[in-house]
Amino acid sequence: MTDATPPPFGLLAELTYACPLRCPYCSNPLDLDGHRAELSTAEWCRVVAEAAELGVLQLHLSGGEPLQRRDVAEIVRAATGRGLYTNLITSALGLSRRRAEELRAAGLDHVQISVQADDPAVSDGIAGITSYARKVAAARLVKELGWPLTLNVVLHRRNLDGIAGILALAEELDADRLELANTQYYGWAWRNRTALLPTRAQLDRAEAAVRAAHARLKGRMEIIYVLPDYYSRYPKPCMGGWGRRQLTVTPTGDALPCPAAHELPLPRASVRAASLAAIWRDSPLFERFRGTDWMPDPCRSCDRRETDFGGCRCQAFLLTGDASRTDPVCHLSPDHHLVADAVRAAGEDGEAALIPRRRAAR
Amino acid sequence: MPSTSRTATDHARPRLGAHLRLAFDPVRDRHVLMGPESVVVLNPTGAAVLGLCDGTRTVAEIVAELRGRYAGVAGEEVRDFLARLAAKRCLELRDD
To answer: CA-to-CA distance for A258 and A286, rounded, in angstroms?
Structure first.
């Protein structure tokens, strides 16, 4: 590409895939053992500096559980020192008062805490570890220290009926934002799709509850409801377009246009071998689905091609085996029956057992 | 807690939301407004308006100050801009 490639706004830094939780919808790779050779503190600080120079404005620290690394505050300092807005995306396990104060002093701007359900037993069951009470305590600590708080709940068949309780919990914790994200089917979630896909009736009830809360909490809490795309007519503009607004760096230094793109059979790009700017502007990986030239029909001639950018490449690959096809979620896709079949199968066999994510240590 | 109105009336005193940061981005050569999971790239006029939203000036005073700096400032447009940002919780419009 040329210098005309606009710079990215956000970098998702997956510091480690280690995590004490075992959520069955985890977006991390199924092969967790292949990612032990993590970037060092110095390498992350270099990546952050290169990101700032490239035009990244926000650094999202994620994982796995980022707090499994002891150097998070040091990486935050490297980012805030360059004016980046920093965001910690955490299960809250490991967010002790001492570490929270250390991160506050380092200039961390915002904390997002995941909760697995409104009910403690259901939440702990999905997380695969006793964690609900610690999450609630950490959320209170985040507010006490003066941070803005986002609660994030991944929605699926097993917790969707508790959405009123989730909204009440967010209100009680005085969350500034509540992200209600219907499960996206990659990684472990793809493996558990039949057990996680909700029914249409569940979604209708949940959407009514969210609409009511939206009106009631307007101006106090921002509620983001990420639509379940298997039930949508059109696909999501995944990542705001491939190589267009965001990039991810994995624990071992692979740069990706989207955190699920490790599943695609594409050339790799590593921050250990090239600068972030060179990867963003010129790598075959980031060039592969940038813009609209790569698109097949029906996307190529569609009015929405610059609205949804053909949808999600990972979803196209998982469903059809070809990452360059139109996202089958789109009702115009010739492969749309694959999505309709999955929804039907889940309706018939929704009590399938969940396979928890494998536990991974550092 | 002071009342927070949803429209930018002349006597409101707007200020940035508690968790928002206004900064200059040298790469894009633009001011940006950053919050949790959001970035708004501002044009020079928008940046000038937000730079005046310090919680002490009223909307009327902000419009007057902009008119001293630029030709053709429409009060209605400034009020709309402020109301839009307030709706996104980027701005608090305090009436007191």
So the answer is: 10
Residue B54's domain comprises: 3-95
Query: Whose CA is closest to A35, among A268, A252, A259, A263?
Result: A252
The chain A residue lying nearest B85, using CA atoms, is A219
Joined tokens for residue A340: 């309709």
Domains in chain B: how many in total?
1
* Best CA proximity match to A317, nearest among A225, A186, A177: A186
Task: Say what the pTM is.
Answer: 0.94
Predicted confidence (pLDDT) per residue in A243-292, tens digit: 999 999 999 999 999 999 998 999 999 999 999 999 999 999 999 999 99
Angle between helix B75-87 and helix B59-69 axes, rounded to 10 deg: 130
Distance between B6 CA and the closest CA of chain A, angstroms: 9
Closest Cβ–Cβ partner in B4, B19, B34 for A57: B34
> In chain A, what is the greatest distance between 2 CA atoms, to the nearest angstrom?
56
ipTM of the complex as predicted: 0.87
Structure token digits, residue A182: 């219907």
- B8: domain CATH number is 3.90.930.60
As given in the structure block, the two tokens for residue A60 are 């999202």
